Task: structure prediction
Amino acid sequence: MKFPGIYEELFYKALRIRLVEERIIELYPSDKIQSPVHLSIGQEAVAVGACQSLKQTDLLFCSYRSHAFYLAKGGHLREMFAELYGKATGCGHGKAGSMHLAAPEVGLMGSSAVVASTIPHAVGAALAAERLKKPQVIVAVFGDGATEEGAYHESLNFAALHKLPIVLLCENNGLAVHSKLEARQAYRITDQAKSYGLPVAYLADGHDVVKVHEVFSGIVGEVRRSRCPHFVEIRTCRYKEHVGPDEDSHAGYRSVEELQAWKSKDPLILNQELVAQYRPVILQEIDDAVEFAERSPWPERSELLSDVV
Amino acid sequence: MALIQARAATDPTLETEVVTYREALFRAMRDALARDPRVIIFGQGVDDHKGTFGSTLGLAQEFGAARVFDTPLAEEGMTGIAIGAALNGLYPIQTHIRSDFVLLAMNQIVNLAAKYKYMFGGRFEVPMLIRMVIGRSWGQGAQHSQSFQSLFAHVPGLTVIMPASAQSILECYPYVIGRHRGPVLAIEHRLMYDLKFRMDEVAEKANGSPLTSRKVRAGNDVTIVATSIMVLEAQRAAEHLARVGGIQCEIIDLNCVSHPDRSLIVESVGRTGKLLVADTSWQAYGVCAEICRIVCEHSPSALKAPVVTLGMQPAPCPTAKSLEDRYYPNLRDLTDAVATLVTGTDHHGIPLPDEHSMADVYKRFKGPF
Result:
């Protein structure tokens, strides 16, 4: 697909992710998606902006909130819906579900439901890239909550100590399930990362997809050149509940005003002209993917005990 | 199944090659590095003057700090790093000088390494080896003495081995590193590092996997299923009982705790009708319980007497020698248990060996670690 400029291209990619997740919300009551979904709605621009400058051979490691990164990194939409449906044609052959999307063919090396657990994997992959002289950049994606885990600090220390080609990307949405950042952290994330000697970037507006792309592209270029680790924190906003298809701002654990403030500068809400232009073609692709999932077979019984060891 | 003599070499007239457990480990590590440039070894102190009790000594100098390196004290992080390294083409060997420390890495081992293949529909493999050492004696105490084979073997996706001889090491480790495609945990025993083993029957297994159980002594009176150093204790007990009581024990070295050779066990018990399980850990919910499950599920009517199990006392390990000697089953306990099981009476009248402390028999070092 041809785009007049980078903004339109990134907008299209972010809109695609949003419309995919809105379709998941529509389908959810049908119970065809029997898997907990952690929606990325509100955070699409971070994934799209970050992945734009990555090659397929660059490796990405994600958390359970990974629909956006799966699509942004180039994972197939059909295989994603098939996976959510638990079908044999899914990217994890029906054994992964929403929380464990992977697409090794485009460098998405896994996503885990245990917070912070894939950060050391990214560091290990960077170690292998360094030792085996692969020209890859490795990216670890994690939320603000992950920075409280021990494995996070162990990973940053090792990446910095061994000067590994990795970008540590913190998607800070300020929430861990229903717990606010202020109730959890005695430190500032970037200050803390700096203490490991890592070069640090901070972006306050995770909706500015072009800016995310520019900043991230600069960092990726620097890591590709220097083979040294970099850290970037991007503020963003999770619109939906921690897990599930609904909004839950009425529950009182978060500020409705803050949510509205984010929405008021969301290009996917503001730029309805571009939405109207791209929506039909995206919906067509989604229809096709859902149809593919619907008509795909369930995993064979023999799959139950295959690929265990 | 070939009979593999895995007994500790005590006979000075042996003509065959004799290799210590430590030398076998060193050879396995060195050969792995020499054979494949993708192999790396890391862990606390792998490059120091002790070299993981000698098993990695000098390898950093020989193969370089990029391939053999010390780590931060970050067990979980380093296991995660091993997984990521494996996903991107390296073969990582992680070491722990005590198995107790591996508990810090349980999240990565259980939630990630064990599941990475299955959870993503077989699209990834994480070939890697985690070595850990069980401590015992000289006051190792509650946190330097534990045997977690059943914890690991409980989890599908993990392969757990407990080499009871240099032969097992030289058969299993090259296979694990060179051919096996999943995560393997090798639980070594500190007291065995200095023991010498005859290498007369090391079998190159071209086709079959060595990651299974092995019969190390043939007999028709009782089946002893044992792990790690308890295999050696069982062999000592068996030799004594053959000599003074005419009792012939069959001994099965479980070796691959996660994937035991069930048919070997069931066939043996079917013949002897009597089963004793001797494990290095606690009996409850462990190897002892699992072997009983295998026999009960496959051949319950084969048992002519209740099963007997031996393991650590159901308490944390004490440091005082007077208590520690009672904490582990010794040769006398084991011999008595076998004699009682075979004769059907504890008034069996068979003279028992007089050694009280197994640690005194096996230990060549005088502490501290």
Remarks:
- Residues 272-295 of chain A form the longest helix (24 residues).
- The mean pLDDT of chain A is 97.
- Residues 6-239+246-296 of chain A form a domain with the Rossmann fold fold (CATH 3.40.50.970).
